[in-house]
Amino acid sequence: MKRLTLILAALALTLSLSQCKKTETPTTDEGIFITLKAGYGNGAKTDFAPATGAFVWTEDAMEYIYVGGSQHDACLGALSGTGTGTNQMTFSGTLTTTPNEGETLHFFYLGKGRNGSAVSTMDFSTQDGSIENVTNYHIAIGDGNYSSSTVNYATTLNMAMAIAYFDVNGFKNASETAETVYLHGDEVYSTATIDYQNGTIAGSTKGNINLGTATAGKYVVLIPSVSTETTLKFDSDSKTGAMTFLRGIQAGKYYANSDAALSVAANNPMDEGALPGLYSVSATKKVRFSKGNLQYIGSASTPYWQFADKQWETLGNNGQGSTNQKVDRDLFGWGTSGWNNENTYYNPWDTDNRTGSSYGYGPLGDHDLTDAYANADWGVYNSISNGGNQANQWRTLTQPEWAYVFNTRTTSSGIRYAKANVNNVNGVILLPDDWSASYYSLSNTNQNGASFGSNEISSTQWSTLEQHGAVFLPAAGYRNGTSVGSVGSLGFYWSASYSRSNCAYCVEIRDSSLTLSDGNIGRCNGHSVRLVRSAQ
User: What is the pLDDT of residues 377-389, one digit of tens each?
Assistant: First the structure.
């Protein structure tokens, strides 16, 4: 067989080789013998210097490069060498499969800890966030063209992954004990596939990457994303966080804040999606309201639940009167969380209002959406994407609780609610227990017969009220079967309380009235849902 010499040189994030004329072509019986002189700035079994984003070969450490070919679907052979502590070193080895004349060669560096045996996949899930661990997952790829008359080759090894440096020190529990942090997202891959034939790597399995215990600095190797905008999500047992890269995750990049870590804000999922105001719902319980009415986004490729971005936002007659499951909705039949409660109708898109159909909504029999039937409550059964994204975090108020909010609780100002028009949307404002009349002057407060025009409030003015914990319940209309009507003039908000086998209690909002105990509403009707989260 012919003897080939391959010289490889790289600086910083690339590896370059230069092509020379053949001087000798000795043969062996085992395959094609290659010698590779490598200069490398970002290798894995190499030492990484964050200040420069550069790597050097670890002194006296065994390193490997694996060779693929465009006309072969498997690795052609492996080269090995001993690190010099600089960005230059020499590899040598035998290609057990002879490339074809003119075939493109692909040179893969796959990180430290290799034993010379080619792999088709790499597991990225067990990273621990340390700078030393980064070098286990570094991948770089270069190309060259095989010629039987050539000994020395030229190529450039390009970094095929990215490195990010995160500060996740805030991911601690209530006792300030650091927790294990996991990284995930729609384009975060826990495994990658090595394609020796095409000279590429690609994320193959989406999953969690273990960053280890929360500290100020965590290094992680990431497979490049496909999308131009990529959001990384961070979770521990008690905290969540996210960071969005507007240009996606790009190969060859070192993501940091100069030489400092990118700080990831750690949020308590119990706070996400909740407004700041505290509301007493009994003598011993307080809640926080969600930041908007509940919505089911059926138009998404994978449907999900969310809260409206603005408190006055409603979907109106957007097509949700149809039976189409792929329509966005914010008017729901009672108990239609998606949990199979053994009754006829339990999905958010159920709209049947034929005579007797109301008996088919909610738990079979006479039951509230609580206790053994709590999963029929939208907030208990479902993860709310912008409300902590975990099930069993929210719930619907019972009829006695709604009544306590409007009529019974004691507040600092004595004001509990007021009819209003907010940003040109009619509805009712609820004021928190600690509301001060000095925050904003409201007219006709605590009067269920007041008109929506009692208080005209702009979006700018509303920001002041919302900052102090005010809640706005918009008159979102209602759905009767497949017809949506009275958007902007009427509002109905479900409670978790049944009144009889075919009816449930709700709050009914009109321009000249406010009814808190209407138990004659058929369960088949589509009404608004405003969820709350327990505060104590």
Answer: 999 999 999 998 8
